Amino acid sequence: LDLDIRLMRDGSVRVMDEDEFHAHQVKYNYPPQVVATAQATCAWLTSHITTTEPFTTTYKPYLDQTRALTP
C-alpha cells in the first residue's frame, strides 16, 4: 500500500512512509480491514526480509548486472 520496507546495507530493516500511510488512511478512508492487513503484512515482511526467499537471493543477478556496467 503506502508502506515501504528497506533492508539497509548494515543489515537493519526500516519501515518507511508510515506518516504517509496514516495520512492516506484519513484522506482515502481506508477500511479497517485494509489497514490491518497492510500492518500485518508489513510486520511479516519486516521480520522475514533477511531470512526468507525470495528476499535473500532474488536481487543477486540484478546486482551482478549493475556491477558489470561499472567501468
Task: Walk me through what this model shows.
The mean pLDDT is 93. Strands 1-2 form a two-stranded antiparallel ribbon. Helix content is 52%, strand content 11%. The protein has helices at residues 18-27, 32-48, 60-69, and strands spanning 4-7, 13-16. A hairpin with a 5-residue loop joins strand 1 (4-7) and strand 2 (13-16). The chain has 71 residues and is mainly alpha-helical. It has three helices and two strands.
Percent of residues in β-strands:
5-15%
Main sheet: strands, sense, barrel: 2 strands, antiparallel
How many separate helices?
A: 3
DSSP, total strands: 2
Strand numbers in spatial order across the main sheet: 1-2
List segments where confidence is low: pLDDT < 50 over at least 5 consecutive residues: none
Mean pLDDT: 93
Helix and strand layout, with pairings?
Elements: E1 4-7, E2 13-16, H1 18-27, H2 32-48, H3 60-69
Antiparallel strand pairs: 1-2
Main features:
mainly alpha; elongated; 71 residues
Compose a concise summary of this entry.
The protein contains three helices and two strands; from the N terminus they run ββααα. The protein has helices at residues 18-27, 32-48, 60-69, and strands at 4-7, 13-16. The chain has a two-stranded antiparallel ribbon with strand order 1-2.
